[in-house]
Write a structure and sequence with these properties.
Helix content: over 70%
Order of helices and strands: HHHHHHHHHHHHHHHHH
Shape: globular
Oligomer: single chain
Strand content: under 5%
Number of domains: 1
Number of helices: 17
Number of strands: 0
Length: 404
C-alpha cells in the first residue's frame, strides 16, 4: 500500500505538469516512464510505477482543460471541447469553463468506476459483436450529422478530406519520432492543426477580456444529463476497438450541440475523457487490449490488482479536482493580456513540441491539418466535421479494410 500511495502522489504531480503543457499527453509521459523502467523499478517498485502511470492519466484528464480553455490548444482528448471552452474564455468566463470541465470529470469518476467493474464481468462474451458493429454505428451517426447540416456538400467534403489526412497520418505514422503508441503519437499534430492552430490564426487579436467567476450557470438537470451522456460515451469508446476520446467528442456533438449548449458539451466531453481512462483499464484486465499509450505501458509491467488501480484512480481524481479548481482561480491574471502575443507564443510552442515529439513528418501533418482546419472558417461550416480525421480510420478498421 505504501508503494501504491507513493505512486499515486507522484502520478498526480506528473499528470498536473503534462496537463498544463500544451501538446504533452499522458501517453508521452508513460512512454518516458517506461523507458526509465530499469532505473525506477529498484527505487519505487512495479506497483508504484503502475500507480504513477494511471494516476498521471487520470490527473491529466482534469488539468488539460486549463490550456484548452485559456490557450485554445487541444490535445487528442479535447479536440472539439476546446471550441466552446475557449469561446467562454473570450467572454470572460474562462474560470467557469474550467470548473465545469472539472465537475464533469468528477461526476464521471463516480459513475464510471462501478460501470467499469460491471463491464469487466459482463461484456467480454459480447466482444465479437462489438468488434463488427462499431463501424455501422459511426456511419449512421455521421450520416445523420451531414444530412442535417446547413451545407451538406461542404460538410461531406470536409469530413472526407480530413479523413483522408487521418488515414495518411496513421498509415505512415512510423515516419514520426515517438517512443510509444505507434502512429497514435501523430494525433497530437493532426488534431492540433485541425482544432488548435487553425482557430488561433482566425481568432480576434485584441486583449484577453477580464476573467470573472460568478458561479456555474448550469442547473442540476443539465449537470446530470451531461455527466451521464459523457460517461456513457467515454465507456463506449474506451471499451470498443479502435475508438478514442476524440471519437467521443464527435459522437457527443451529435447529441449535445457544442455551439448551442456549450456548457453541457464541455461537461460531457470532460466526463467522457475521465470515464475513458477508467474503462480502458478494465478492458486491459478483461480483454488484454490496450486502448491508449498508457495502457500499452502498463501492459509491460507487473500490475497490482484491478481494485488497487481503481483506488489509485479515485484518489488521483479527488486530488486533481482540487488542483484544477485551485489553478482556475488564477484566471483573472490573464485579463488584459494582448491576444496577438499570446496566440503567437502558443503557436510557436506547439509547433516546437510537434517537431520535437514527431519530427519532420509530424510537422508536415501539422501544416496540412492547419490548412484543412481553416476551411470551416472560410466557408462557415462547423469544425465538427473535421472529426473525419479520426472517425474514417475507425470505420475502415471496424470493417477489416487494410489501410495501415
Amino acid at each position: 500500500m505504501i508503494e501504491i500511495f507513493v505512486g499515486t502522489l507522484l502520478g498526480v504531480v506528473l499528470g498536473t505538469i503534462s496537463g498544463l503543457l500544451p501538446g504533452i499527453h499522458a501517453n508521452t509521459l508513460a512512454g518516458v516512464l517506461l523507458s526509465l523502467e530499469l532505473v525506477l523499478l529498484p527505487v519505487i517498485g512495479p506497483g508504484a510505477l503502475a500507480a504513477t502511470m494511471f494516476a498521471a492519466l487520470i490527473t491529466h484528464t482534469f488539468v488539460d482543460s486549463i490550456p484548452s480553455t485559456f490557450l485554445g490548444i487541444p490535445d487528442a482528448d479535447t479536440a472539439l471541447a476546446v471550441l466552446p471552452a475557449h469561446a467562454l474564455c473570450l467572454e470572460g468566463n474562462g474560470e467557469e469553463a474550467v470548473r465545469i470541465a472539472a465537475l464533469g470529470s468528477a461526476c464521471a469518476m463516480i459513475i464510471s468506476v462501478p460501470l467499469s467493474v460491471a463491464c469487466y464481468f459482463l461484456l467480454p462474451a459480447l466482444q465479437p459483436l462489438f468488434d463488427w458493429g462499431i463501424g455501422l454505428i459511426l456511419i449512421a451517426v455521421i450520416g445523420y450529422m451531414i444530412v442535417t447540416s446547413e451545407s451538406p456538400g461542404w460538410a461531406l467534403a470536409l469530413f472526407g478530406v480530413s479523413g483522408t489526412l487521418g488515414i495518411f497520418t496513421l498509415r505512415y505514422g512510423f515516419l514520426g519520432w515517438h517512443s510509444i503508441g505507434g502512429g497514435n503519437a501523430l494525433l497530437m499534430p493532426l488534431l492540433t492543426g485541425l482544432f488548435g492552430i487553425s482557430v488561433l490564426l482566425t481568432a480576434a487579436q485584441g486583449k484577453m477580456p477580464v476573467q470573472v467567476f460568478s458561479g456555474i450557470s448550469m442547473d442540476e438537470r443539465s449537470v446530470a444529463k451531461g455527466s451521464l451522456l459523457g460517461t456513457l460515451a467515454g465507456v463506449a469508446v474506451g471499451w470498443l476497438p479502435g475508438l478514442s476520446n476524440a471519437t467521443a467528442n464527435g459522437l457527443l456533438a451529435s447529441v449535445v450541440g457544442y455551439e448551442k449548449d456549450r456548457r453541457t458539451y464541455i461537461l460531457a466531453t470532460s466526463a467522457a475523457n475521465t470515464a475513458n481512462a477508467f474503462i480502458g483499464l478494465a478492458a486491459l484486465f478483461a480483454l488484454s487490449r490496450m486502448r491508449n499509450g498508457v495502457m500499452v505501458a502498463l501492459s509491460a509491467l507487473t500490475l497490482p490488482p484491478l481494485s488497487a488501480l481503481f483506488t489509485v484512480g479515485v484518489l488521483a481524481a479527488c486530488a486533481a479536482y482540487a488542483i484544477t479548481v485551485m489553478l482556475s482561480r488564477f484566471a483573472h491574471r490573464l485579463g488584459g493580456v494582448e491576444g496577438k502575443w499570446l496566440h503567437g507564443t502558443v503557436i510557436a510552442f506547439v509547433v516546437a513540441v510537434s517537431l520535437l515529439l514527431t519530427g519532420p513528418f509530424g510537422g508536415l501533418v501539422l501544416l496540412l491539418a492547419t490548412l484543412i482546419g481553416l476551411v470551416p472558417y472560410l466557408v462557415n461550416v462547423p469544425r465538427m466535421y473535421c472529426m473525419g480525421a479520426v472517425m474514417i480510420p475507425v470505420m475502415l478498421y471496424s470493417f477489416g479494410i487494410a489501410w495501415i
